[in-house]
Amino acid sequence: MAIKTMEDVAVLMNKMCFRRKLFGGVDEKDVWRQMENLQNAYRSAYEIQQERLKILIRERDLEISELKRRIASQGKTRGETNG
What we know:
Number of helices: 2
Distance between the termini: 59 Å
Helix content: over 70%
């Protein structure tokens, strides 16, 4: 399962099971393996979210630049000056 969102991480956590030992509860090595898998899932979801946000910021910056350009060109066509 490719982890893309925090909801995917939650599903992974709900499905997580630990191997049991006959004496002493759960297998420690299995717990560490599961924790490493969980950490990798969180990292994957975080990196995907970070990339998505970078794209949104770039799109916002482009839109701001375009709007500033339009405002500047409208001021020039009307003969207005700032200053």
